[in-house]
Design a protein that fits this description.
With 356 residues, the chain is of the alpha/beta class. The two termini are 22 Å apart. The chain binds 3-isopropylmalic acid and manganese (II) ion.
Protein backbone atom coordinates (compact mmCIF):
# COMPACT_ATOMS: atom_id res chain seq x y z
CA UNK A 1 0.00 0.00 0.00
CA UNK A 2 1.23 3.50 -0.84
CA UNK A 3 0.21 6.31 1.48
CA UNK A 4 1.16 9.92 2.14
CA UNK A 5 1.23 10.96 5.79
CA UNK A 6 1.47 14.61 6.83
CA UNK A 7 3.52 14.89 10.01
CA UNK A 8 3.04 18.00 12.14
CA UNK A 9 5.36 17.66 15.15
CA UNK A 10 4.48 21.10 16.62
CA UNK A 11 5.91 22.31 19.92
CA UNK A 12 7.44 21.12 23.19
CA UNK A 13 7.65 17.34 23.31
CA UNK A 14 5.65 17.07 20.05
CA UNK A 15 8.73 16.55 17.84
CA UNK A 16 10.22 13.92 20.18
CA UNK A 17 7.12 11.76 20.45
CA UNK A 18 6.14 11.99 16.78
CA UNK A 19 9.68 10.92 15.83
CA UNK A 20 9.10 7.65 17.72
CA UNK A 21 5.70 7.13 16.11
CA UNK A 22 7.21 7.64 12.64
CA UNK A 23 10.01 5.21 13.54
CA UNK A 24 7.42 2.57 14.44
CA UNK A 25 5.41 3.17 11.26
CA UNK A 26 8.60 2.79 9.22
CA UNK A 27 9.13 -0.60 10.86
CA UNK A 28 5.58 -1.56 9.97
CA UNK A 29 6.13 -0.40 6.38
CA UNK A 30 9.25 -2.56 6.03
CA UNK A 31 7.71 -5.61 7.70
CA UNK A 32 4.49 -5.50 5.68
CA UNK A 33 5.88 -4.10 2.45
CA UNK A 34 4.08 -0.76 2.39
CA UNK A 35 5.34 2.60 1.13
CA UNK A 36 4.66 5.40 3.57
CA UNK A 37 5.80 8.87 2.55
CA UNK A 38 6.17 11.29 5.46
CA UNK A 39 5.86 15.01 4.62
CA UNK A 40 6.57 17.47 7.42
CA UNK A 41 4.68 20.70 8.14
CA UNK A 42 4.76 23.53 10.68
CA UNK A 43 2.08 24.26 13.26
CA UNK A 44 1.78 26.09 16.60
CA UNK A 45 4.57 28.19 18.08
CA UNK A 46 7.04 26.58 15.68
CA UNK A 47 4.98 27.97 12.78
CA UNK A 48 4.52 31.40 14.42
CA UNK A 49 8.29 31.65 14.88
CA UNK A 50 8.97 30.61 11.29
CA UNK A 51 6.27 32.50 9.41
CA UNK A 52 4.02 34.44 11.78
CA UNK A 53 0.93 32.18 11.54
CA UNK A 54 0.02 29.20 13.79
CA UNK A 55 -1.54 27.17 10.91
CA UNK A 56 0.04 28.42 7.68
CA UNK A 57 -1.70 27.87 4.32
CA UNK A 58 1.18 25.70 3.26
CA UNK A 59 0.50 23.34 6.16
CA UNK A 60 -3.21 23.27 5.30
CA UNK A 61 -2.41 22.32 1.70
CA UNK A 62 -0.01 19.61 2.90
CA UNK A 63 -2.78 18.18 5.12
CA UNK A 64 -5.38 18.28 2.36
CA UNK A 65 -3.10 16.35 0.00
CA UNK A 66 -2.28 13.69 2.61
CA UNK A 67 -4.04 10.39 3.30
CA UNK A 68 -3.73 10.99 7.07
CA UNK A 69 -2.18 13.45 9.50
CA UNK A 70 0.03 12.61 12.46
CA UNK A 71 0.13 15.50 14.88
CA UNK A 72 2.28 16.05 18.00
CA UNK A 73 1.29 18.96 20.25
CA UNK A 74 1.12 22.74 20.33
CA UNK A 75 1.71 25.27 23.09
CA UNK A 76 4.50 27.40 24.47
CA UNK A 77 4.72 29.09 27.88
CA UNK A 78 5.85 32.35 26.31
CA UNK A 79 2.25 32.75 25.07
CA UNK A 80 0.46 31.26 28.11
CA UNK A 81 1.74 33.95 30.41
CA UNK A 82 0.88 36.75 28.05
CA UNK A 83 -2.91 37.33 27.99
CA UNK A 84 -2.39 40.13 25.45
CA UNK A 85 -0.89 37.84 22.81
CA UNK A 86 -3.29 37.94 19.85
CA UNK A 87 -1.58 35.15 17.94
CA UNK A 88 -1.36 31.94 19.99
CA UNK A 89 -0.11 28.42 19.16
CA UNK A 90 -3.44 26.81 20.17
CA UNK A 91 -5.18 28.82 17.43
CA UNK A 92 -3.26 26.66 14.96
CA UNK A 93 -4.87 23.51 16.33
CA UNK A 94 -8.36 25.02 16.46
CA UNK A 95 -8.01 26.48 12.95
CA UNK A 96 -6.79 23.14 11.63
CA UNK A 97 -9.74 21.27 13.20
CA UNK A 98 -12.20 23.79 11.77
CA UNK A 99 -10.68 24.13 8.30
CA UNK A 100 -10.26 20.40 7.84
CA UNK A 101 -13.78 19.77 9.19
CA UNK A 102 -12.53 17.41 11.92
CA UNK A 103 -15.73 17.31 13.94
CA UNK A 104 -15.40 14.00 15.81
CA UNK A 105 -12.59 13.43 18.27
CA UNK A 106 -12.37 9.84 19.47
CA UNK A 107 -10.43 9.13 22.67
CA UNK A 108 -10.24 5.50 23.76
CA UNK A 109 -9.29 4.70 27.36
CA UNK A 110 -8.34 1.24 28.62
CA UNK A 111 -6.77 0.12 31.85
CA UNK A 112 -3.74 -2.16 31.85
CA UNK A 113 -2.87 -4.25 34.87
CA UNK A 114 0.82 -3.39 34.45
CA UNK A 115 -0.11 0.25 35.09
CA UNK A 116 -2.46 -0.09 38.05
CA UNK A 117 0.30 1.17 40.32
CA UNK A 118 0.65 4.39 38.26
CA UNK A 119 -2.96 5.36 38.92
CA UNK A 120 -4.08 6.97 42.18
CA UNK A 121 -7.21 4.78 42.01
CA UNK A 122 -7.58 1.29 43.50
CA UNK A 123 -7.03 -1.73 41.21
CA UNK A 124 -10.59 -2.99 41.87
CA UNK A 125 -11.93 0.24 40.36
CA UNK A 126 -9.52 0.10 37.41
CA UNK A 127 -9.99 -3.53 36.44
CA UNK A 128 -11.52 -4.02 32.99
CA UNK A 129 -12.05 -0.39 31.97
CA UNK A 130 -12.64 -0.09 28.23
CA UNK A 131 -14.39 3.09 27.19
CA UNK A 132 -14.22 5.64 24.42
CA UNK A 133 -15.04 9.33 24.51
CA UNK A 134 -16.64 10.86 21.40
CA UNK A 135 -15.94 14.55 21.78
CA UNK A 136 -17.49 17.05 19.37
CA UNK A 137 -14.55 19.10 18.09
CA UNK A 138 -15.60 22.00 15.87
CA UNK A 139 -18.52 23.63 17.69
CA UNK A 140 -19.71 24.81 21.08
CA UNK A 141 -18.07 27.37 23.29
CA UNK A 142 -14.68 26.89 21.62
CA UNK A 143 -15.91 28.36 18.36
CA UNK A 144 -18.86 30.61 19.28
CA UNK A 145 -18.69 34.37 19.04
CA UNK A 146 -16.38 35.98 21.58
CA UNK A 147 -16.60 39.50 22.90
CA UNK A 148 -14.32 41.46 25.16
CA UNK A 149 -14.38 44.89 26.74
CA UNK A 150 -12.17 46.02 29.60
CA UNK A 151 -14.47 44.60 32.31
CA UNK A 152 -16.53 42.08 30.41
CA UNK A 153 -16.05 38.98 28.32
CA UNK A 154 -18.38 36.47 26.66
CA UNK A 155 -17.98 33.13 24.89
CA UNK A 156 -21.06 31.93 23.05
CA UNK A 157 -21.95 28.23 23.09
CA UNK A 158 -24.02 27.24 20.09
CA UNK A 159 -24.92 23.94 18.39
CA UNK A 160 -27.13 22.97 15.48
CA UNK A 161 -29.06 19.73 15.07
CA UNK A 162 -26.86 18.75 12.11
CA UNK A 163 -23.66 19.29 14.11
CA UNK A 164 -25.02 17.04 16.86
CA UNK A 165 -26.44 14.41 14.54
CA UNK A 166 -23.26 13.77 12.53
CA UNK A 167 -21.15 12.93 15.59
CA UNK A 168 -24.01 11.13 17.38
CA UNK A 169 -24.37 8.77 14.41
CA UNK A 170 -20.65 7.94 14.59
CA UNK A 171 -20.94 7.32 18.33
CA UNK A 172 -23.97 5.03 17.93
CA UNK A 173 -22.16 3.08 15.21
CA UNK A 174 -19.15 2.68 17.49
CA UNK A 175 -21.46 1.45 20.27
CA UNK A 176 -22.87 -1.17 17.88
CA UNK A 177 -19.33 -2.51 17.25
CA UNK A 178 -18.47 -2.36 20.97
CA UNK A 179 -20.47 -3.10 24.12
CA UNK A 180 -23.71 -1.49 22.91
CA UNK A 181 -24.00 1.20 25.51
CA UNK A 182 -23.98 4.93 24.82
CA UNK A 183 -24.03 7.65 27.45
CA UNK A 184 -24.78 11.21 26.41
CA UNK A 185 -23.11 13.58 28.85
CA UNK A 186 -24.68 17.03 29.02
CA UNK A 187 -26.03 19.68 31.37
CA UNK A 188 -29.62 19.55 30.16
CA UNK A 189 -30.92 20.73 33.54
CA UNK A 190 -29.35 24.13 32.86
CA UNK A 191 -28.15 24.65 29.28
CA UNK A 192 -30.30 25.12 26.20
CA UNK A 193 -27.60 23.61 23.95
CA UNK A 194 -27.61 20.51 26.16
CA UNK A 195 -31.37 20.20 25.79
CA UNK A 196 -30.90 20.24 22.00
CA UNK A 197 -28.24 17.51 22.33
CA UNK A 198 -30.57 15.40 24.44
CA UNK A 199 -33.55 15.87 22.14
CA UNK A 200 -31.45 15.02 19.07
CA UNK A 201 -29.92 11.92 20.63
CA UNK A 202 -33.35 10.80 21.92
CA UNK A 203 -34.58 11.11 18.34
CA UNK A 204 -31.76 8.89 17.02
CA UNK A 205 -31.85 6.25 19.77
CA UNK A 206 -34.84 4.26 18.34
CA UNK A 207 -32.81 3.67 15.15
CA UNK A 208 -30.27 1.75 17.28
CA UNK A 209 -32.54 -0.54 19.31
CA UNK A 210 -29.70 -2.84 20.36
CA UNK A 211 -27.80 0.08 21.93
CA UNK A 212 -28.68 0.97 25.49
CA UNK A 213 -28.79 4.80 25.55
CA UNK A 214 -28.28 6.68 28.82
CA UNK A 215 -28.24 10.34 29.74
CA UNK A 216 -26.04 11.82 32.45
CA UNK A 217 -25.34 15.33 33.69
CA UNK A 218 -21.70 16.30 33.34
CA UNK A 219 -21.10 16.95 37.05
CA UNK A 220 -22.38 13.49 37.89
CA UNK A 221 -20.39 12.00 34.98
CA UNK A 222 -17.18 13.52 36.38
CA UNK A 223 -17.86 11.68 39.64
CA UNK A 224 -19.04 8.42 38.04
CA UNK A 225 -15.88 8.24 35.91
CA UNK A 226 -13.84 7.92 39.08
CA UNK A 227 -16.33 5.95 41.23
CA UNK A 228 -17.50 3.39 38.69
CA UNK A 229 -15.75 3.77 35.34
CA UNK A 230 -16.67 0.26 34.13
CA UNK A 231 -20.28 1.40 33.61
CA UNK A 232 -19.16 3.36 30.52
CA UNK A 233 -18.74 2.10 26.98
CA UNK A 234 -19.24 5.03 24.54
CA UNK A 235 -19.42 8.51 26.06
CA UNK A 236 -20.82 11.12 23.68
CA UNK A 237 -20.42 14.76 24.58
CA UNK A 238 -19.89 18.31 23.37
CA UNK A 239 -16.54 20.02 22.88
CA UNK A 240 -15.75 21.55 26.27
CA UNK A 241 -17.16 18.71 28.41
CA UNK A 242 -15.23 16.24 26.25
CA UNK A 243 -12.00 18.16 26.72
CA UNK A 244 -12.33 18.05 30.50
CA UNK A 245 -13.69 14.51 30.87
CA UNK A 246 -11.07 12.97 28.61
CA UNK A 247 -8.23 14.41 30.72
CA UNK A 248 -10.00 13.05 33.79
CA UNK A 249 -10.43 9.66 32.12
CA UNK A 250 -6.70 9.51 31.40
CA UNK A 251 -6.13 8.95 35.12
CA UNK A 252 -7.88 5.60 34.66
CA UNK A 253 -5.29 4.50 32.12
CA UNK A 254 -2.39 5.33 34.42
CA UNK A 255 -0.81 8.15 32.45
CA UNK A 256 -1.98 10.99 30.26
CA UNK A 257 1.13 10.33 28.19
CA UNK A 258 -0.12 7.06 26.76
CA UNK A 259 -3.53 8.07 25.45
CA UNK A 260 -4.09 8.40 21.71
CA UNK A 261 -6.85 10.11 19.81
CA UNK A 262 -8.30 10.18 16.34
CA UNK A 263 -10.23 13.00 14.73
CA UNK A 264 -12.56 12.28 11.84
CA UNK A 265 -14.57 14.58 9.64
CA UNK A 266 -15.33 15.61 6.10
CA UNK A 267 -11.97 14.62 4.57
CA UNK A 268 -8.56 13.60 5.85
CA UNK A 269 -8.35 12.21 9.43
CA UNK A 270 -5.92 13.30 12.10
CA UNK A 271 -4.19 11.29 14.82
CA UNK A 272 -2.61 12.78 17.91
CA UNK A 273 -1.76 11.93 21.51
CA UNK A 274 -4.14 13.66 23.90
CA UNK A 275 -1.32 15.13 25.99
CA UNK A 276 -0.11 18.67 25.41
CA UNK A 277 3.30 20.10 24.59
CA UNK A 278 4.69 19.59 28.16
CA UNK A 279 7.35 22.30 27.70
CA UNK A 280 9.17 21.41 30.94
CA UNK A 281 10.17 18.10 29.38
CA UNK A 282 10.97 19.36 25.88
CA UNK A 283 14.36 18.33 24.56
CA UNK A 284 15.08 16.07 27.55
CA UNK A 285 14.22 12.75 25.89
CA UNK A 286 11.95 11.82 28.82
CA UNK A 287 8.45 12.23 27.32
CA UNK A 288 6.22 9.21 26.93
CA UNK A 289 5.98 8.26 23.22
CA UNK A 290 3.12 5.77 23.77
CA UNK A 291 0.32 8.29 23.13
CA UNK A 292 1.86 9.08 19.75
CA UNK A 293 2.56 5.41 18.98
CA UNK A 294 -0.98 4.28 19.86
CA UNK A 295 -2.18 7.18 17.68
CA UNK A 296 -0.08 5.77 14.83
CA UNK A 297 -1.85 2.43 15.38
CA UNK A 298 -5.23 4.20 15.00
CA UNK A 299 -3.87 5.84 11.84
CA UNK A 300 -2.97 2.43 10.37
CA UNK A 301 -6.46 1.21 11.20
CA UNK A 302 -7.93 4.15 9.25
CA UNK A 303 -6.07 2.82 6.17
CA UNK A 304 -7.78 -0.53 6.70
CA UNK A 305 -4.45 -2.01 7.87
CA UNK A 306 -6.01 -3.87 10.79
CA UNK A 307 -3.31 -6.52 11.18
CA UNK A 308 -0.55 -3.90 11.12
CA UNK A 309 -2.43 -1.77 13.63
CA UNK A 310 -2.98 -4.71 15.98
CA UNK A 311 0.69 -5.66 15.66
CA UNK A 312 1.91 -2.17 16.57
CA UNK A 313 -0.59 -1.99 19.45
CA UNK A 314 0.62 -5.37 20.70
CA UNK A 315 4.26 -4.24 20.50
CA UNK A 316 3.47 -1.11 22.53
CA UNK A 317 1.48 -3.11 25.11
CA UNK A 318 4.36 -5.59 25.37
CA UNK A 319 6.75 -2.72 26.21
CA UNK A 320 4.41 -1.77 29.05
CA UNK A 321 4.15 -5.34 30.30
CA UNK A 322 7.99 -5.58 30.33
CA UNK A 323 8.25 -2.26 32.18
CA UNK A 324 10.23 -0.74 29.32
CA UNK A 325 8.52 2.62 29.82
CA UNK A 326 9.24 6.29 30.52
CA UNK A 327 9.39 7.91 33.96
CA UNK A 328 5.71 8.95 34.10
CA UNK A 329 4.86 5.25 34.20
CA UNK A 330 7.81 3.89 36.11
CA UNK A 331 9.68 6.46 38.19
CA UNK A 332 12.26 3.92 39.41
CA UNK A 333 13.38 2.15 36.24
CA UNK A 334 12.59 4.59 33.47
CA UNK A 335 13.91 4.52 29.94
CA UNK A 336 14.20 7.47 27.58
CA UNK A 337 11.70 8.48 24.89
CA UNK A 338 13.93 7.21 22.08
CA UNK A 339 14.78 3.94 23.89
CA UNK A 340 11.09 3.22 24.44
CA UNK A 341 10.43 3.90 20.74
CA UNK A 342 13.41 1.75 19.67
CA UNK A 343 12.15 -1.16 21.76
CA UNK A 344 8.72 -1.05 20.13
CA UNK A 345 10.04 -0.62 16.61
CA UNK A 346 12.55 -3.48 17.17
CA UNK A 347 9.72 -5.67 18.43
CA UNK A 348 7.85 -5.00 15.19
CA UNK A 349 10.96 -6.04 13.22
CA UNK A 350 11.91 -9.10 15.16
CA UNK A 351 8.68 -10.85 16.14
CA UNK A 352 6.62 -13.11 13.99
CA UNK A 353 2.96 -12.26 13.66
CA UNK A 354 1.92 -15.69 14.99
CA UNK A 355 3.62 -14.96 18.29
CA UNK A 356 1.55 -11.87 19.01
C1 LIG B 1 -6.90 19.03 23.54
C2 LIG B 1 -6.22 20.29 24.00
C3 LIG B 1 -6.70 21.45 23.15
C4 LIG B 1 -8.18 21.59 23.39
C5 LIG B 1 -5.98 22.79 23.39
C6 LIG B 1 -4.48 22.65 23.23
C7 LIG B 1 -6.52 23.89 22.53
O1 LIG B 1 -6.40 20.52 25.34
O2 LIG B 1 -6.73 18.63 22.37
O3 LIG B 1 -7.60 18.41 24.35
O4 LIG B 1 -8.61 22.24 24.35
O5 LIG B 1 -8.96 21.06 22.59
MN1 LIG C 1 -7.52 18.92 26.37
Amino acid sequence: MQKKIAVLPGDGIGPEVTREAVKCMQSIAVRFNHQFQFDYGLIGAAAIDACGAPFPDETRRLCQKADAILFGAVGDPKYDNNPDATIRPEQGLLKMRKELGLFANVRPVKSYSSLYQSSPLKPEILKGIDLVVFRELTGGIYFGEKTRTKNNATDLCSYSVSEITRIAVLAFEAALRRNKKLTLVDKANVLETSRLWRETVQGLAPSYPSVQTNYMFVDNAAMQLIMNPRQFDVILTENMFGDILSDEASVLAGSLGMLPSASYGDGVSLFEPIHGSYPQAAGKNIANPLGAIFSAALLLESFGLFVESAFLTKAAEESMACGYVTSDMSPRSAVSTSKAGDWISDFVFSHRMETV
